[in-house]
Amino acid sequence: MQARGTRGVPKDDLFAGMHFNAILTLGTRVRIEVLKAIAKELQSPDTHAYAPDFGPRPILVVLPTNKPSYSVLYGEAIERYGHLLTREKLTHAYKRAGTAFKGQMRQNFWVLHDPKPRTSIKRTADGEPVAN
Question: What is the pLDDT of residues 48-100, one digit of tens each?
């Protein structure tokens, strides 16, 4: 007897002929580009970092050689490593946003539209605050 899937369709035929795609919005794609810019800044002989291109939730994965690896979501990555970003380092994010960078996109991505340098807490390469 053959195993049955949803609504009596044999499991082998359940997904036959179907094509699956992840649906990523423009906002998600821009977030990934911002995380890639951060990852590029975190690269060193002791640390490897990357932002996966594919996924509904943009994450930054950091792989230090002498410490446990960790991943952070977009908001935490901006909080920890936003001070590493400059307008010049975000060219791919601007290109990805294209002409859509108006209104809601501008509100969502203040990192891309900050006209003056931000004063922020100085942090180590691992994102930890530096004591004064």
Answer: 999 998 777 899 999 999 899 999 999 899 889 988 988 888 888 777 777 66
Domain-wise residue ranges, the chain: 26-112
In sequence order, which residues have a C-beta less than 8 Å from that of residue 25 and are 6 or more positions away? none
Q: Which two tokens stand for residue 31?
A: 């977030």
CA dist 85 and 93 (Å) reads 11
- Chain centroid to Cα 102, Å, comes to 20
List the beta bridge partners of residue 70: 62
DSSP class of residue 45 equals T
Q: Which residue has the tokens 């994450």?
A: 59
Q: What tokens does 3 get? A: 């195993």
